[in-house]
Amino acid sequence: MKLQSQLTAAFTALLLVIMAVAWYVIYSLILDLLIQDEQRQLKQTGELLVNVLNEQYGRADIQRVNGILQDQDLQMFMYDRKHDQVLLSTMSNKVASAFFRNNDFSDTKKNQWEYGKEQFVTSRIIFLPEESGLELILLTPISDLQIVQQSFFSRIFLIFIIGAFAAVLISYYLTKTLVTPLSKLKRQLKKIEKRQFDDIEHIKATGEIKEVADSVYEMANELQRYMSSQQTFFQNASHELKTPLMTIQGYAEGIKDGIFTEKEAEKGLEVMVSEVNRLKAIINEMILLAKLDSEPSVYEPVKLNAAELINQVIDRAIPFVNEKGIRLHHEVDESIILFADEEKLLRALLNIVFNGIRHTNSQIEINVFKRNRRIFITIADDGEGISEEVTPNIFHRFVKGKNGETGLGLAIARAIIEQSGGKITAGKSKLGGAEFEVNLPERNGE
């Protein structure tokens, strides 16, 4: 059974159960309400009669009172509590006697009497003065009220049928509104499965379904970017590995075949060693990236003093700074504490700083500060900056700018920083070149 049919059946069943319970409660209460209303009406009628009889009783004889009661077309008794006897009744003597035998007239708390299989609603009104002990007792058969109840039930049942039909229509509409986006979402997931990313549509929905649809859409875009980056990665990786291998192969074959002279052969060996070292560096960085992506256990965070960490970066960068003749300025809040893997975060910062040294003209600035319970590390230079074409992919593997080396340094930096619970962004600096901003949590888990 399809989801829409299941939801329609469940929703319809729920509405029908609610309506059935409501009908049962109303049907059960209606008789009590009718009885209470009938007692109220009997009391009002009885009080009017008693007022009339109070004025005439004592001045008129009992026969005159009986005549007045008979004219009312009501079922009633005039009862004498003091002597526990019925003085007058609008019913026949036989029926009145049967009522008196089957019911306790002296019990003023009982509101319903029985006669044969019939039940009667009663209402008692006392004559004034109360010392007279006279009461007027009016009766109405419950069967008359049940006729009203049945009539009300018929109307309720008709409303129930109409309501049940409306419930089915409403449930169908609501479930269709709910299921239609899910059906569309299912088709979009099939497109993702078949990698038809260009055909994916953004589904219009509301509530939690909208959130799921948005997440699926974002997931598809991210998956497309990931697959594209993987394809680019393999293309770039093959190119980066193929070039030195071809160089090594060319020199090796030339030396083997005796094509090169002694000096040329020696130069070729130097080139081969250089290319082997380059290959080794690329492979080591690729292995490190793979470990960072797949082995969280290689990342061991500890508490670090930010000033001490930056000092280590400066110590390792000074030889390159002096060689190029540039100025390296840094400003760090001494109280800032980081929670990260010291060796790997140092590697990430060094990769960013060395990238800045290669591209700067005259100066590099490193600033570390805290804002809104986050720690920021900015590394800025006054070089040519990052081109608009490279900026979106600057942290992807084998993406190199001018004077770049392996194209893995910034990718490694991003992987390490993300493992630290932070993120890294690149943009334009106030110095005119590039600026990299590292955003880290103040403490682990925050």
UniProtKB/TrEMBL annotation:
<dbReference type="InterPro" id="IPR004358">
    <property type="entry name" value="Sig_transdc_His_kin-like_C"/>
</dbReference>
<keyword id="KW-1133">Transmembrane helix</keyword>
<keyword id="KW-0808">Transferase</keyword>
<keyword id="KW-1003">Cell membrane</keyword>
<feature type="transmembrane region" description="Helical">
    <location>
        <begin position="152"/>
        <end position="174"/>
    </location>
</feature>
<dbReference type="GO" id="GO:0000155">
    <property type="term" value="F:phosphorelay sensor kinase activity"/>
</dbReference>
<keyword id="KW-0067">ATP-binding</keyword>
<dbReference type="InterPro" id="IPR050398">
    <property type="entry name" value="HssS/ArlS-like"/>
</dbReference>
<keyword id="KW-0597">Phosphoprotein</keyword>
<protein>
    <recommendedName>
        <fullName>histidine kinase</fullName>
        <ecNumber>2.7.13.3</ecNumber>
    </recommendedName>
</protein>
<dbReference type="GO" id="GO:0005886">
    <property type="term" value="C:plasma membrane"/>
</dbReference>
<feature type="transmembrane region" description="Helical">
    <location>
        <begin position="12"/>
        <end position="35"/>
    </location>
</feature>
<feature type="domain" description="HAMP">
    <location>
        <begin position="176"/>
        <end position="228"/>
    </location>
</feature>
<keyword id="KW-0547">Nucleotide-binding</keyword>
<dbReference type="InterPro" id="IPR036890">
    <property type="entry name" value="HATPase_C_sf"/>
</dbReference>
<keyword id="KW-0812">Transmembrane</keyword>
<dbReference type="Pfam" id="PF02518">
    <property type="entry name" value="HATPase_c"/>
</dbReference>
<keyword id="KW-0902">Two-component regulatory system</keyword>
<dbReference type="InterPro" id="IPR003661">
    <property type="entry name" value="HisK_dim/P_dom"/>
</dbReference>
<dbReference type="GO" id="GO:0005524">
    <property type="term" value="F:ATP binding"/>
</dbReference>
<dbReference type="InterPro" id="IPR005467">
    <property type="entry name" value="His_kinase_dom"/>
</dbReference>
<keyword id="KW-0418">Kinase</keyword>
<feature type="domain" description="Histidine kinase">
    <location>
        <begin position="236"/>
        <end position="444"/>
    </location>
</feature>
<dbReference type="InterPro" id="IPR036097">
    <property type="entry name" value="HisK_dim/P_sf"/>
</dbReference>
<dbReference type="InterPro" id="IPR003594">
    <property type="entry name" value="HATPase_dom"/>
</dbReference>
<dbReference type="Pfam" id="PF00512">
    <property type="entry name" value="HisKA"/>
</dbReference>
<keyword id="KW-0472">Membrane</keyword>
<dbReference type="InterPro" id="IPR003660">
    <property type="entry name" value="HAMP_dom"/>
</dbReference>
